[in-house]
Amino acid sequence: MIRIVKIGGNVVDNPGLLREFVRDFAAMPGMKVLVHGGGVMASQMQKEMGMVPKMVEGRRVTDEEALKVVTMVYAGWCNKNIVALLQAQGCNAIGLSGADGNAIKALKRPPVHVESLGEMVDYGYVGDVTAESVNAGFIYSLLEKGIVPVFNAINHDGQGNLLNTNADTIASSVAIAMANYRYRSPREVCSRCEECTHCSDDGRLTHETELIYCFEKDGVLYDKDDDSSVIPEIDRTRFASLKAEGRVADGMIPKLSNSFKAIDSGVARVVIKHARNLSGPVGTTLK
To answer: What's the per-residue H, E or C state across 49-90?
Structure first.
């Protein structure tokens, strides 16, 4: 089992909650990857520097000056603080941007038409990633050695440019890539291929992969004003009805859409839960 865990900026920006999460993450057995955001801290830093953060439908417009700030925050303080906290828990972690080890490439997003504004928007130095742009072999080489990769939202385009990328999408892309990475021939571990329960079509082994999104709620809520109204399980039919009822909206829609895409692409399951409940039973499972 490989677990890909993503935490948002509201967790990263809360020292007490972050320490609780890091303790539980470090205790989680098996291979694991951590992906983090940091948007709350980045916006605060921009304001302190006299800049005005510009967001369009929850996505940060990243010009050259904004890129410098988010790189300092995401790949600097946020990333290294998390790594230091993990090391204190005995979890040997390494902080990475996508440029490090050529781990993740991104494609610069072209200007797009935003219906809510009725105009074209140039997001600047913003990148989009897919599972195909993830260097799964490099990530697996770290996991094999017992090293936990900690990724921030900064990636590169292979042409010398850094790009700001959505951390939810990074987590989903890494999960899909690791779910489909074929790491060794079954003949290396057993004498008969049919004895391998996770053997892929070409005779190489894969790992079951789980994607976990941790944020400041206990899961997907049926009533956004009632924190106890967690929906235990969602399939595509239920997702469609929840959207039609207006029960899920705004940032939860792309999170769930990314989650079902991951499941369709080989990820065994996706769980959405509170950062304080990483090892607990409460949460929303997508299967």
So the answer is: CCCCCCEECCEECECHHHHHHHHHHHHHHHHHHHHHHHHHCC
Is 36 in contact with 12 (CB distance < 8 Å)? yes
The dihedral formed by the CA atoms of 95, 100, 106 and 108, expressed in degrees to the nearest 10: 100
**pLDDT reported for residue 131:** 96
Q: Which uninterrupted H or E stretch holds 269?
A: strand 269-274
Amino acid at 213: Y
User: pLDDT at position 192, please?
Assistant: 47
By the 8 A CB rule, do 170 and 37 touch?
no
Closest CA to 39 of 8, 68, 17, 66: 8
Q: What are the Cα distances from residue 244, in Å, to 115, 179, 237?
A: 19, 31, 11
pLDDT at 83: 98
pTM, two decimals, is 0.90
Q: Which two tokens stand for residue 143?
A: 């996991």
For residues 158 and 98, give the distance between their C-alpha atoms in angstroms, rounded to a whole number.
10
Determine the Cα–Cα distance for residues 170 and 129; give it in Å rounded to an integer.
Answer: 7
Supply the pLDDT for residue 203: 54
For residue 121, which of 164, 170, 63 has the smallest C-alpha distance?
63
- The three-class DSSP label of residue 172 is helix
Residues in the chain: 287
Q: CA 93, 144, 99, 111 torsion: positive or negative?
A: negative
Q: What is the mean pLDDT of each run of 10 residues along the chain (287 residues)?
A: 94 94 96 94 93 86 95 96 98 98 97 87 94 97 97 97 94 96 64 50 76 93 91 93 85 82 94 93 91
